[in-house]
Every structure is written in C-alpha cells, then in structure tokens.
C-alpha cells in the first residue's frame, strides 16, 4: 500500500545495522520513522544512511520485498543484514 501524505512506519534494524545509521536520532535497533510519501524501501534505507550492500533482504509486514516496493502507513519493516562467520 503506497501513501502520498505523512505517515509512520516501524523499522527493526537490529543491533548491527543500527550502528550504521547516519540519520540523527535513529541509531537504535527498533525505530519509528515519519515519512512523506510516496516512499519505497530504497528511499527509506537511503534516508537512514545505511549502505545497501550491508542489507541481505527486507520484509514488510512479514513478506519479503524488493527495493522498489512501496511503503504505507503502519508498515512493519525488518532489515536483515548479511551474516558472516568463521
């Protein structure tokens, strides 16, 4: 659902991605972001300042979505980082 007015979404960044956020006040694992639409996942990630290459995939309301997916009021977004190990 796309929105063209002012609306809020909940974003779960996790600890790893929260450390990469450049937007002031949003360096926490779970945040609520006010947006002015229309907005895509790509716009949200760029607004937060997280380099896209650190994100493995994104879900919106528990469904895997691509970068061009539109966001709407009350959406629940989870950004999943790439995981490395050894």
H/E topology pattern: EHEHEEE
Molecular shape:
globular
Note the beta-strand portion.
25-35%
> Number of DSSP helices?
2
Number of strands: 5
Largest sheet: 5 strands, mixed
Category by helix and strand content: alpha+beta
CATH topology: Ubiquitin-like (UB roll)
**CATH class descriptor name:** Alpha Beta
User: pLDDT below 50 for ≥5 consecutive residues: which ranges?
Assistant: none
CATH superfamily: Beta-grasp domain
CATH structural architecture = Roll
Q: How are the SSEs ordered, and which strands pair?
A:
Layout: E1 6-12, H1 14-18, E2 30-36, H2 41-48, E3 55-60, E4 63-65, E5 76-81
Parallel strand pairs: 1-5
Antiparallel strand pairs: 1-2, 3-4, 3-5
């Amino acid at each position: 659902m796309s929105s063209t007015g002012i609306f809020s979404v909940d974003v779960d960044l996790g600890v790893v991605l929260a450390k990469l956020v450049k937007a002031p006040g949003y360096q926490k694992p779970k945040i609520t972001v006010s947006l002015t639409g229309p907005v895509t996942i790509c716009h949200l990630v760029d607004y937060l300042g997280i380099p896209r290459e650190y994100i493995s995939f994104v879900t919106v309301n528990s469904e895997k979505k691509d970068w061009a997916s539109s966001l709407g009021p009350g959406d629940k977004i989870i950004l999943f980082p790439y995981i490395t190990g050894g």
